[in-house]
Each structure stands twice: as structure tokens, then as C-alpha cells.
Amino acid sequence: MSITPVISATGLFTPPDSISNEELVESFNAYASAFNAENAAEIAAGGVTELMPSSAEFIEKASGIKARHVLGKAPILDPAIMTPRWPERPNGEISVMAEIGVAAARDALARAGRDAGEVDAVLCAASNMQRAYPAMAIEIQQALGIDGFAFDMNVACSSATFGIQTAADFVRSGNARSVLVVNPEICSGHLNWRDRDSHFIFGDVATAVLVEAKDIAPKPHWEILGTRLKTVFSNNIRNNFGFLNRATPETAGAADKLFVQEGRKVFKEVVPMVAAMIVEEAGRLGIDPAALRRMWLHQANAGMNRLISQRVLGHEASEDESPTVLDTYGNTSSAGSIIAFHKHSDDLGAGESGLICSFGAGYSVGAVFVRKVA
Length: 374
Ligand code: COA
Fold this sequence. Notes:
Structural class: alpha+beta
Helix content: 25-40%
Bound molecules: coenzyme A
CATH architecture of the domain at 222-373: 3-Layer(aba) Sandwich
CATH superfamily of the domain at 222-373: Thiolase/Chalcone synthase
Largest sheet: 9 strands, mixed
Low-confidence stretches: none
Number of strands: 13
Distance between the termini: 23 Å
CATH topology of the domain at 222-373: Peroxisomal Thiolase, Chain A, domain 1
Oligomer: single chain
Strand content: 15-25%
Strand order of the largest sheet: 5-4-6-7-1-8-13-12-11
């Protein structure tokens, strides 16, 4: 008989600093004015394009984002810097990404009443890793005192759900009984804060999901009814930063070495793909999609979530049916749907089911159907 995987608990680390749209726009517009003044002659001659101001109203209307948390606010808002700046830490000190991952993991472990020594494996699933190796997951494993194995995985915005399926498969196969999936997303590091089209999109956060065998899980927990993953290659969300283009005068500061996207195309192409996959997988699992009590969707754009939930539920979802955290967190890549689940799942009753779903670069889509067991 196969072992049933469950979500025993989730954890969250939210950086104390937050940037409102108004603060962000003020900084961007100061930068744009200074750029335009400095390049006035070239702009007049047609050699350089004038920078247009950003607007807080546009940002909220186009995306639903009102603010975002970041790990270091001051340099991001300084018009002369506009990028996060962290002093490099010596190798003997925990790295930033591991540190916030550990904070989220400890929260999940405490909520489950689980001692780290009882965990068998750690997956660090996120859209960017701070370094090539050793794996972030192994550093997190060591900081928590876990005896077992750990590795990193990256499926951009879908990293967390892909991590949950991987953890669930380890549990199903008996290769592990308790697996921590950790999602430290330091999105401020790959965002081009000088790009008007995207400077408002991302925020920083870390989440953790403890996936365990049902027989050892504390109650309440969430039975994983089924998971489904899908990827289809697309260049519409891309970041060319990598170890083959270490900073040279040509590559340093190049816009394509940060997050770039064709936002409109992403919107149009991803919505139908996600909705179709959810409905299809629900059918395979014998779940009526319209009867899902709640959908914890990826938090990239409020309009996208409205359309997806409408296609799945058959009516416009209320905030109760499809909660938003994007307004205060921005897009936190793979962590978004996990934050929504973490903050908006305690009120569900025993037997009620829901869906955690992520989507993004790749393209990638991950769906995790869960049912509460109290
Ligand atoms: N301030 C004011 N105006 C802005 C602006 C800003 N910061 N950024 C763009 N605009 C302007 C554009 O110049 C354009 O003006 P025009 O019509 O005169 O040409 C207009 O606003 C519309 O721009 P557009 O980029 O088409 O906006 P949009 O409605 O598509 O919204 C996104 C942009 C990014 C919010 C939206 O496309 C989106 O969220 N897409 C999905 C993204 C996603 O999920 N990505 C996954 C990431 S992991």
C-alpha cells in the first residue's frame, strides 16, 4: 500500500522592510529626471530615448500590487544605486539566502511540533540560488541539524509546487518520511529597478512547507490528493545571468542579465494553460473543480488570478475563494501561493479541499490538490 503524503505545516519569513508604490515611484522618477537631464542633448538629437515617469496608479491597476517587502530598502530606493547591496559574508557565516530559508523552516517545524532531527531531507526550491555550490539546501540542512540529504531545485515561479511534488514522491516511495521544502526568494536581486515596465513587480520573502508521511503527521494536516506539473519552453520570461557570462565590461549591468518579460504575452498564454491543467487534473482525481473551497494561486497579477479562478470555478472568485497577498508582498516568485496558503488556510474545516497552484517562467505550472484533515 502506498504511503499518503501530507502537508504537516508551512512557515513564513517576511522581511521587516516594505516599499510602497509611492516610495518606489518617487525614487524611479528621480532617477528618470536625472537621466533625462544628463542626456538632454542626445535625447534632443534622437540618439537616446527619454525615460518616461512611472506611476503608482498604473502599478496598482495593472498588477494589484500596492507594496513589497525587501531585505534591504535604502540602496534600492537611492536613485543613484537602485539595486540591493549586501556586504559579502565570510564562508564561516551563514549566507543570506540560507538564513531566511532557515527562519521560514523553523516556523514550519515549530507549527508542526517537529524536531529538526526527525526530518530526512531538505529541498531548497527557488528561482535564484545565491551561489553555484555547495547547495543552499545543504547549508540549510546543516544549520537546522538535519541528518539526511538535501539539494537545490529551480523551476522559477513554480519551484515550490515542483518541490512539493518531489517531496511527496519521496514520501510515497518510502525514501523519506519528513521533507522540508524551503523557498527563499530574494527577488530584489534579479529585478531591474531601473526598468519602468517591471520595477514594481517583485518582493523578497521565504516560505517553507513540511511534507510528511500521514502516519507521523500531527493534526491538523493537509492530505495531498494529487499533484501535477507541466512545462512548455518560452522566452517570454527570461534571465540570462549565469556562470558563462561572469561580469565583463560588456555584460556588467546588461538588462538581459536580470529579469525580463513580455508581460502581455505571458498573461495571454499562461492563463489558458493553467486553467486547462487544473480542470484536467481535477477530473483525473475525481474532484469537481467548481467545488474547490479555496484556490491559493501564484501571486503575480490580480487580473490573471481573476481569470484563472473564473475558468476553474465557473464564476468570479471572491477574496475568500481565491485570496490575494500580492497587494502587500508583490510577486514573490515561487513563494506566493505558499504565503497565500499559509495565511489563509486555518479557517477551512475538516474535509474541505483546495488547490495550491503556481505558474511562471519556463513556462511552468504546478498544481497541488489538498484536503484538510483535522
Ligand atoms: N508606470 C506607468 N505606465 C507604465 C508603466 C509604469 N511603471 N509601465 C508601463 N507603462 C505603460 C506602458 O508604457 C504602456 O503605455 P502605452 O499603452 O502608451 O504603450 C501601458 O502602460 C501598458 O503597458 P503594458 O506593459 O502593456 O501593461 P500591462 O497592462 O500588460 O501590465 C504587467 C504589465 C507586467 C503588470 C502585466 O502584463 C502582467 O502582470 N503580466 C503577467 C506577468 C507575469 O505573471 N509574469 C510572471 C512573472 S514571474
